[in-house]
Amino acid sequence: MAIHKKFNRGRTFLRRMGIGFVAAVLLNTGAQNGFAADVNIGTGSTAGVYYQVGRAICRIVNRDTETHGINCQSSPTDGSIFNLNGIRAGELQFAVAQSDWQFHATQGTGPFAASGPDPELRALFSVHGEPFTVVARADSGIKELDDLKGARVNLGNPGSGQRATMEVVMQAKGWTVSDFLLAEHLPASQQSLALCHDRVQAMVYTVGHPNPSVSKAIGLCNALLVKVSGPEIDRLVQEHNYYVYTTIPGGIYHDNPDPIETFGVKATVVSSSRVDAKIVYLVVKTLFDGLDEFREMHPAWGGLTPESMVRDGLSAPLHEGALSYFSEAGLR
């Protein structure tokens, strides 16, 4: 219920901003092929990499707007769950979402059980890996995942993939919010400040690295990355193919020289079968044609390959427009 209330408030915000779902329109705008359309990408917190994904895609797409006539804009949102609900409701044409929540939206499980499967959800491609990240104050005594119990922890805002993944971990551990001294619900953009002010002792974040929110918490607040492991995590990875073991590289944050073991998901870009295949084809083709530029826009994207982007973390069927380009490019 809380997810749907949060989403409805977000829908009102999107409408006020004039960035709701816009159908494909043929306009006489002078574009070389006579085609023009407005598209909007739902992202996440401005402190996260999802926001950067949307901005980077639109930057590349809008650079070639005179050729294909597409006007792309990206919007900050509450994150994966909100975005997937937005795709389903027709409020967003494109969105970034964690691979696990893409799976659950497709299947109608987890936070999407009440609404059922979304038969129109379509995958486009995956982007960076997203480790489940625990950051704790050095004076908190939190050295491993189990130490979060009894501490003051920011779980993330309802509607975000950050919060939803933490709830999966809590369920696997047999924890409830009452197991924490304080369970905060702050969005990613506010959690570093809360950690610095000792409002919380730890924060969790499912995000690509390096990340400015994590960097701020570590660099300014004497915080440390915490290892995430144990039999419960092993079971999550073994039982769900959208989870993988991963590490946060050592040395990318101040005074954190060692790699940190954890598990994670993939960031994916999704759409709906209701979005015109021509729009999707042009957006995907333009991005893949500009992939070298895209990889240089954020360190988390440096190792991306076309093959991995088409293969990894995609549970929903591929959109007709994306599949058309991938077949043309020899990727499928």
Walk me through this protein's architecture.
Helix content is 39%, strand content 20%. It is globular, with a radius of gyration of 20 Å. The protein starts with a helix and ends with a helix. The chain contains 13 helices and 10 strands. Strands 1, 2, 3, 4, 5, 6, 7, 8, 9 and 10 form a 10-stranded mixed sheet that branches.
Strand content: 15-25%
**Outline, from the CA principal axes?**
globular
Bin the helical content. Answer: 25-40%
Overall mean pLDDT: 88
**H/I helix tally:** 13
End-to-end separation: 40 Å
Task: Briefly say what this structure is.
With 332 residues, the chain is of the alpha/beta class. It has helices at residues 2-17, 49-63, 65-68, 80-89, 99-107, 161-173, 188-196, 212-221, 231-239, 277-289, 291-295, 306-311, 320-328; strands at residues 37-42, 70-75, 94-98, 121-137, 152-154, 182-184, 202-206, 223-226, 244-248, 260-272.
Notable features of this structure?
332 residues, alpha/beta, globular, 10-stranded mixed beta sheet, 13 helices, disordered N terminus, 10 strands, single chain
How are the secondary structure elements laid out?
Blueprint: H1 2-17, E1 37-42, H2 49-63, H3 65-68, E2 70-75, H4 80-89, E3 94-98, H5 99-107, E4 121-137, E5 152-154, H6 161-173, E6 182-184, H7 188-196, E7 202-206, H8 212-221, E8 223-226, H9 231-239, E9 244-248, E10 260-272, H10 277-289, H11 291-295, H12 306-311, H13 320-328
Parallel strand pairs: 1-2, 1-3, 5-6, 5-7
Antiparallel strand pairs: 3-10, 4-7, 4-8, 4-10, 9-10
